[in-house]
Amino acid sequence: MDWGIENRLSRLIREDGRCQFLPIDHGYFQGPTSCLEDPSETIKGLLAYADGLFVTRGVLRASVPPNSPTPIILRVSGGTSIIGADLANETITTSIDEIIRLNAAAVGISIFVGSDYEKQTLTNLSNLVSECEPYGIPVMAVTAVGKELEKRTARYLSLSCRIAAELGARIVKTYYSTEDFDKVIEGCPVPVVIAGGPKCETELEVFEFVYDGIQKGAIGVNLGRNVWQNPHPVAMMRALHAVIHNNATPKEAQGLFEELRNS
């Protein structure tokens, strides 16, 4: 592996081989999402427990302190909105010059396998890898499904993750599947992190799917709404940190969450 790629990945993935990424990029297609109206307020207290912050260039400049030691994963795809015809109709929105100028540790881009824009988004990924690799910048592919959440089967996720890896993604972000998630991991030759998806009903539900996903081979998570839409986001972040980096069980994480919430 190229030294630059390896160096940047080592900033995002801890020595234990695990990672906890915090995405706050939702506004690029959702606008001022609940609890993310002021990103600078949202991330207060959370950055210290994040191994990487997934963010757009605009919010990075406006809301993230330049002296923050948390590595940046720069969201570089977009071009559609939640009220548009099709969320899959994305393009690359950020040049390689700006990626370098913003000192990103990695970049992230969505792919929409099986959509009308499959070829377009897969070509976006391939072109981005070709642009970033000469500069030692790893690309994280996000296996997005737009509004069609029913697509999140293990078979679909396995297909999407493998294609992303084949096209050169160094990390793949994908949804957790309750059935055969181990097969999703086994079929992907690069590290996989778990996406949060819609907000869960309870904290324990989050701890359970994260724990199970880690046990089945995922190296970490990229959870946003299940953290910062929680009434106690710092407690949630720290409890997830215990699951990911300290091998805490869901019940242990729940106990830690309740202790931190009540303190």
Q: Which series of helices and strands comes N to C?
A: HEHHEHEEEHEHEHEHEHEHHH
Number of helices: 12
Could you tell me the CATH topology label. TIM Barrel
Strand order of the largest sheet: 1-2-3-6-7-8-9-10
Outline the secondary-structure elements.
Blueprint (H helix, E strand, L loop, with lengths): L2 H10 L6 E5 L3 H4 L8 H4 L9 E4 L1 H7 L8 E4 L1 E2 L12 E2 L3 H6 L4 E6 L6 H15 L6 E5 L10 H13 L4 E5 L5 H6 L5 E4 L7 H13 L4 E3 L2 H4 L4 H14 L3 H13 L1
Parallel strand pairs: 1-2, 1-10, 2-3, 3-6, 6-7, 7-8, 8-9, 9-10
Antiparallel strand pairs: 4-5
Helix pairs in contact: 9-11, 9-12, 11-12
Explain what the structure shows.
This protein has 263 residues and is of the alpha/beta class. The protein has a single domain (3-229), classed as TIM Barrel (Alpha-Beta Barrel). 41% of the residues lie in helices and 15% in strands. The chain is built from twelve helices and ten strands. It has helices at residues 3-12, 27-30, 39-42, 57-63, 96-101, 118-132, 154-166, 181-186, 203-215, 225-228, 233-246, 250-262; strands spanning 19-23, 52-55, 72-75, 77-78, 91-92, 106-111, 139-143, 171-175, 192-195, 220-222. Helix 9 (203-215) packs parallel to helix 11. It is globular.
